[in-house]
Write a structure and sequence with these properties.
The complex is a heterotrimer. Chain A is mostly helical. Chain A contains 15 helices and four strands. In chain A, helix 4 packs across helix 10, helix 5 packs antiparallel against helix 6 and helix 5 crosses helix 12. The two termini of chain A are 41 Å apart. By secondary structure, chain B is of the alpha/beta class. In chain B, 33% of the residues lie in helices and 22% in strands. Chain B has a six-stranded mixed beta sheet, sandwiched between helices. Chain B starts with 17 loop residues before the first strand and ends in a 15-residue tail after the last helix. Chain C has a two-stranded antiparallel sheet. In chain C, helix 2 runs parallel beside helix 7, helix 3 runs antiparallel to helix 4 and helix 11 crosses helix 12. Chain C is globular. The chains are: A mainly alpha, B alpha/beta, C mainly alpha. Chains B and C meet through helix 2 of B and helix 7, helix 8, helix 9 and helix 14 of C.
Chain lengths: 327, 520, 328
Amino acid sequence: MSDTSRRIPDRLQSPGLKALKSWESLLLAVAIAIFITNSFLSPYFLDAWNLSDATFNFTEKAMIAFAMALLIIAGEIDLSVASIIALASTAMGYALQFDVGTWGLVAIGLGTGLLCGAFNGALVTGLGLPSIVVTIGTMSLFRGISYIVLGDQGFRGYPPEFSFFGQGYVWWVISFEFVLFAVLALIYYVVLHRTNFGRAIYAIGNNPTGALFSGIRVDRVKFILFLLTGLMAGVAAVCLTARLGSTRPTIALGWELEIVTMVVLGGVNILGGSGSIPGVVIAAFVIGLVTFGLGLLNVPGIVMSIFIGGLLIGVIALPRLWAMWRG
Amino acid sequence: MQQLAPTSTAGHSGDPALTLSGITKTFPGVKALNAVSLELYPGQVTALIGENGAGKSTIVKVLTGIYRPDAGQMSVDGQPVRFNTAQDATETGITAIHQETVLFDELSVAENIFIGHAPRGRFGLIDTARMHAKAAEILDRIDAPLDPATPLKDLGIANKHLVAIARALSVDARVVIMDEPTAALSQKEIEELYDLVERLKSEGRSILFISHKFDEIFRIADRYVVFRDGEHVGAGSMADVTEADLVQLMVGRAVDQIFPDRPHATGAEVLRIDNLAHPTEFEDIDLTLNAGEILGVYGLVGAGRSELMQAIFGITRPSGGTIRIDGVETVIRSPADAIARGIVYVPEDRGKQGAILGLPIFQNVTLPSLGRTSRAGFLRLAEEFALARGYADRLDLRAAALDQDVGNLSGGNQQKVVIAKWLATKPKVIILDEPTKGIDIGSKAAVHAFMAELAAEGLAVIMVSSEIPEILGMSDRVIVMREGLIATELTGADLTPETLVRHAAGIRSQAPERAAGVVQ
Amino acid sequence: MRRALTSREALLVGVILSLLALIASRFPAFVRPANLVDVFTDTAPLIILALGQAVVILTRCIDLSVASNLALTGMVCAMLNVAYPGLPIPVILLVALALGALLGAFNGVLVWTLGIPPIVVTLGTLTIYRGLIFVMSDGEWVNAHEMSAAFTGFPRAEIFGLPVLAWIAIAATVVLLIVVARTPLGRAFYAVGGNPNAAVYTGLDVGKTQFWAFVLSGTLSGLCGYLWVARYAVAYVDIARGFELEVVAACVIGGIAIAGGAGTIMGAVLGALFLGIIKNALPVVGISPFWQLAISGAAIVIAVAFNARAGRRKGRLILKRAEREAQA
């Protein structure tokens, strides 16, 4: 039936060429351009310690963004992540009085994140509810519990060793958080792009019914992704709490938006099915560089949020406008 | 009841109310309509006949403004028309009772009838009283005992259908399209529908009547048009044709299509199903399947064939009965379970259930077999390409590269990818649901040849199909399903187009009828 | 009106009455007419926003920008009042309605013409609109003493013993009830959300219908913007922050199906009243107001789960036996 003259090639174009033409390359060019612009705009920009400080603008958010990218590629979303941070941080602050030690605090932070993720995952996969609404609800619920515990008060007095997770440096200007960010980026890269589990995520996001009909346990995969997202919010809570040295119920308020923006800017399709970890990593740098640059120019945080919101809509709108323009 | 003797059947007096010519509509990979023509005359019922995938639904969508044709002209009373929206078609006087439910559960009966053209009163508000009165009038005309204020969600299927009919009649329609209007109705309701058709005829309206049931076509149609594979293959007066003529036109392929010659030798029993039941979809299902056998499953659309197959594949949970594989009773809770036990399913809905259109060919092929191509959960692309290549060659896949998205392939090649995906799991039983629906002749032949090859290798094959030549040409044995039950099993000399159609439609069958004519 | 009280509405009325009875058994002062008027007036903005949100959700969308729209419009009205103290209230109202509609239309256009998911659009405009307040006001507050008496007095003026704010909530409810029940657009909201595929078959434009839902929601948010700022006699960047979640909660509790196409305007109003009563009762029964966020969150989760259970679709009926049983 087959003859070798009409053999189908494995690939239409080499992986290198494909990568060059990708969204990620474009984004990388943007990142470099912003970097260069920043260095001209402010004399303080090209300073190792300043640049190191700038990474804190995105490391914690990016950790969550990795897991969120997987979740969004699989066609779901978790808007409660910032509230999970608040609850995990509150749980750690509450545990201070029991003298659980630094590792005890970390375990409590991560455990709270996992529990919250499991709660979201169970509601979405167990009861078949839409994740947008479920996590809008748990977004209020989780932060609400923080308010119940804290009111207008706060927790402080974290042990000095604990502060390493948010303020420590591994080597010279390289912070613990940055190393953690890099390691997690690598792990998520491998999971999404190099494992069967990652392949299942793409299949589910492209076509959940087709994935189910192909023997993928769709609900189980989704549940694991909610767990992972909760866990990463727990990790971010440990880092952020350690960095700030205190817990207030307003901690990480509005972060869900910045995280989703990071993911979408990284080229992840908000409707699911496509996206990559390198894209999210570069997007994290872009957002970090922009906020840092605007900060150097004394632009207040709330004005930066206009930029973030505009970026979120613009990144999705522009390709569509372009497609409409070309008919 | 006897067929009325229509005075105008012999030569269609007068000019057509609606004329289509050269209508072409192409979808990616499929030419759904190829330069078809159609003429509808006032006061006459024209039956549109064809197999699934012949282009009937597409022409209905063109006529009602849902699809815009790529080429061709449409004219009403000699005036050329173009439809941009469904509203345009309605305003021109073309209305349809669609096969799919196009009703709204949360709205009332009257609102469903009048959505888009509700009577307005003061301040431009909807005049509810007048709307209810007009709805009651229309419902009365079709003898539907429904309260216009009832929410639609409170109605059963048959009554919803009456609402759909009432909706079609709520505009002063010149042309009424009925797409399998009796599919969901009981005998009594069907009789009432026939009366309605007669009334519409006498009012001078043109009716396009789409049906699979020959008895009703012969009873109410004046003219016929036959489509096959998106082309117009015949038209004329019902008085001039016999059932056999129409079947011949419909399946014409029987003469030009050659099925692989294969021995009817079968091996040991692989699959045995006893008394399988589902609360709403099927019951009393007993069947056996042997290695090397192709079991055809025939029936009309909605007979419960796909639902049965999906229960065997673990998509839905049966409420009772047993499934045995190689004599061992097994419980299948999910497709993953089914695949692990050697049962795979090529679904009818290729785009939604069969393939992951946004993923490349090789990834589609390896998706259920990742356990074998990977090591410790890590992908090995070289293994994946090798596996995909083997089946691509074997199935004669036409593609630019193995990393091309499946969505860019033609229907036939998409189907080959789906079949390859399942063969890669090395199954014992493969269920193919309408395996050649909507694919070109060349790919069809390739799929048929491949099925024969699989059976010869000892695979047990179940083939669900609505195409009579395919059923006749490929099966060793055929089960006919009707209304969720197995109507009969046919082999050898009993296996003819006529017996298939009769058992599937439940007409004039030798056995006493089991389910038709529900007493209200 | 015969079917106005379907099971969900009746259930909510029952719950609200028993809630009131429960509170009254310990704190009779809570159910005094004067206090009930206060509770209703306090809940009025939530009711008005829930009306708009209900319509948006009916069309299978969601509008998370309502609170930011409210705050932005409120700030514009306040600054307008400071700049031109003589500007008559009807003009202010008109500005509030128009600006709100414009902000809603911006959401709607992005959803309609570019097909961007509503959650993304409104998550973006949520921050953009609020950021704009800062840009406009430079982070400054507009305080009571800067506003004119007429400006702050309007929502509190009483007619037949009920403040104007409460009357506006009632009027908005009536208008929305009529729009939804008696206009083609109102019925289209249900049709488009309930069965978009079928909506196309009947010639309805899904995107355009969603656009109008966003305009409606925006207009009501704008109206609330002025009323909110005038009632509390203060305008600043953070007013009503996070209020959008309470609005969504009111709708979900009121039985508006998040998948679109099902639910009633009365349900949304009752959902808002339910939350309003809890909010006002918390301090009375001695629970910290900090519980409120968690309560609305829990209410969303429970209500969504409840809605999904009630609305679970049945499979198709092939067996004649099953069909007979279903009809019986």
